[in-house]
Specification:
- There is one protein chain.
- The chain is of the alpha+beta class.
- It contains 13 helices and nine strands.
- The strands form two sheets. Strands 1-4-5-9-8-7-6 form a seven-stranded mixed beta sheet.
- Bound molecules: 3,4-dihydroxyphenylalanine (DAH).
- The site of 3,4-dihydroxyphenylalanine has 11 residues, from strand 8 and strand 9.
């Protein structure tokens, strides 16, 4: 008898399930099929998983009612079982569908995000360029290299010996004054002229030697439109048997021809440098007006190129070269000064301020 009362009917099971699943439709429809952000989609996917646990999991009403099938009249158990199975399939199908739609939407958002819009204008990278002083230095180097000169790159920190003594400027000599420089540790100073490399080159290579040495030099000058405490020079040195002043003139003449054009002429004015004898100041005819005078040559028709002369026997001797066997010429030109002339800069400091708007004009 007690078995009778405990006996369940398939209708009871189904009605309990129907009650428990009354909200299922609303709950699953509340979860959107798509969303704009991946974060939201992931959240919705989690909601679907929770629905699956709630309605199909071990503690779901379906699981509870399925266990009760045992207590149904054996004749009607099959009916109950297939009803429950059909119901479960429907719920399962709906949850699967929702999950698939959401996953497709996530995939689509991902591909959209990673895809490249080939119609968007590109970001242009700004190519770098050489500094006008570097451009000038390279032009000068090219000319001398084609004349058979080696390019020497030597130290900027020097001893008194290389900056002065070996260049025939002994201690106390007045020529040291205008070349006062910056001193570092005892006995060392920043070179005030590239003439130092004459000595190094002769010591290293001996004679004969033909070299140019471009580089930085330093002087205790107050910056103004025509001075800077750091500037650039090119030193030139040619030592061999039988070198004369004619070689010096011919070489610099050829140099200005190649740099400024074949109509350029040179002029040598007697001068004095301790390391040359005789010494000369070199001018070239103005590349702009060619002689009559203009703003660039300050109405003189000539522009100063630099100093030059025949290497003093004392200098050859100091560098270990026999002045009885060898003679030579040397010259020193200002790179930035020439640069400022060519580009008509009225303030040499513009070259050292590193303002890209200024520098990028000289490519
Ligand atoms: N060193 C000199 C200066 O800085 C320039 C110079 C003059 C270099 C005559 C030379 C030369 O080689 O022969 O003012």
């Amino acid at each position: 008898m007690s078995e009778e009362t405990n006996q369940q009917r398939p209708e009871d099971l189904i009605s309990r399930i129907n009650t428990a699943y009354g909200n299922f439709d609303r709950e699953i429809e509340l979860i959107p099929d798509t969303s704009a952000s991946l974060e939201d989609s992931a959240k919705h996917l989690l909601e679907v998983r929770n629905l699956r646990i709630k309605y199909l999991g071990k503690k779901s009403e379906l699981a509870i009612q399925r266990k009760l099938i045992r207590s149904i009249d054996p004749h009607r158990r099959g009916e109950a079982g297939s009803s429950i199975q059909k119901f479960e399939q429907t719920i399962n199908q709906r949850i699967d569908d929702k999950e698939r739609t959401l996953k497709t939407s996530i995939e689509k958002t991902r591909t959209d995000r990673e895809s490249i819009d080939v119609t968007i204008p590109g970001r242009r990278s700004r190519p770098g360029h050489l500094h006008p002083i570097t451009l000038m230095r390279q032009r000068i180097e090219d000319i001398f290299v084609s004349l058979g000169y080696a390019v020497e790159d030597d130290r900027e920190i020097e001893t008194d010996f290389y900056n002065f003594d070996a260049l025939n400027i002994p201690e106390g000599h007045p020529a040291r004054d205008p070349q006062d420089t910056f001193y570092t540790t005892e006995g060392f100073a920043l070179r005030s002229q590239t003439s130092t490399v004459q000595i190094h080159a002769m010591q290293r290579r001996g004679a004969p030697v033909r070299m140019i040495a471009p580089g930085r030099v330093f002087r205790r000058d107050t910056p103004d439109p025509t001075h800077n405490p750091m500037f650039f020079q090119v030193e030139g040195l040619c030592v061999d048997r039988g070198i004369t002043m004619a070689h010096l003139k011919g070489t610099l003449q050829e140099f200005v021809h190649r740099l400024f054009g074949p109509e350029t002429s040179t002029r040598f004015r007697p001068s004095y440098f301790p390391f040359t004898e005789p010494s000369a100041e070199v001018d070239y005819s103005c590349f702009n007006c060619g002689g009559p005078g203009c703003r660039i040559c300050k109405w003189s028709g000539w522009i100063e190129l630099g100093g030059s002369g025949m290497v003093h026997p004392n200098v050859l001797r100091a560098a270990g070269v026999d002045p009885e066997e060898f003679t030579g010429f040397a010259f020193g030109l200002g790179i930035d000064r020439t640069c400022a002339r060519i580009y008509e800069l009225d303030d040499i400091r513009l070259l050292f301020e590193n303002d890209v708007r200024f520098l990028e004009q000289f490519r």
